[in-house]
Amino acid sequence: MRPGKRPIITFSLIGLCVVLFGLQLLSGTITGANPDPVTAALWYAPLQTSPWVFEPWRMLSSALVHSPSNAMHLLFNMFALWFIGRAIEPALGALRYLALLLLSALGGSVAVLFLTPAMTPTLGASGAVFGLFGALFILMRATGSQTGGILTLIGINVVISFVIPGISWQGHFGGLVVGALCALVFAKSAPAASGDRRRDAARQARRQGLGLLGITGLLLLLIIVGMQLVTPAG
Fold it and tell me: Transmembrane region positions (predicted)?
């Protein structure tokens, strides 16, 4: 971690998820509802991006809530976010790191939209976490670092996604792919050195911004296509 560079986004997201988890438990205890009102308000199922319901914000809000009946769901995601986020956020900077998290979470939900039954709800930060896995692999490759450890970690988590029931492998897959794409934008956008550092930095920022806009546009296009395919019985 660079001196003076604190992973504010990472710690803020962990804090928000923990607070929301407490609210999930509290609202469930008070109302006796299952699912509790907080979970029901924020989770995502493909039907909720259909023309009949159309609540697309859930594709991102679902990343903030976790299964209230399984604290390990929250603990694993927050540990992974803390462990990897502390390394990636200072390296990328807050804005690029935030874009990586948001697009990875959205990518996970887009995969859920296409690959999950319409009425099946999903929740959790796993899509964003897998996006960090994919990004870390690409960034390590770009810097010539050994990638055996991160590949092993990804492999273990992919196996877990398929072996343990109730885990959304679709969200993991979408997050992993989009996170890797974002990292490719970051790693491949450096312009040829001109001798003017400020100009080079500005050109790199423009290229990265255009790359991220391209990924965002692709995801939005996929959402538009996917919402036309959703049926209540799908």
Answer: 59-85, 97-116, 122-140, 147-167, 173-190, 210-230
Q: What is the DSSP letter of 190?
A: P
Known active-site residue 66: no
**What is the per-residue pLDDT across 109-149, written as a single tens digit (0 to 9) for each?**
999 999 999 999 999 999 999 999 999 999 999 988 888 88
What residues contact residue 61 under an 8 Å CB cut-off, 6+ apart?
41, 42, 43, 44
What domains are there in the chain, each with its CATH number? 8-229 (1.20.1540.10)
Distance CA 199, CA 215 (A): 25
Give per-residue pLDDT as tens, 59-68.
Answer: 999 999 999 9
Catalytic residue among 27, 50, 104, 126: 126
How far is Cα 26 from Cα 227, in angstroms, rounded to an integer? Answer: 33
Helix, strand, coil proportions of the chain in percent (round to 5)? 75, 0, 25
Tokens representing 71 are 């604290």
pTM above 0.70, yes or no: yes
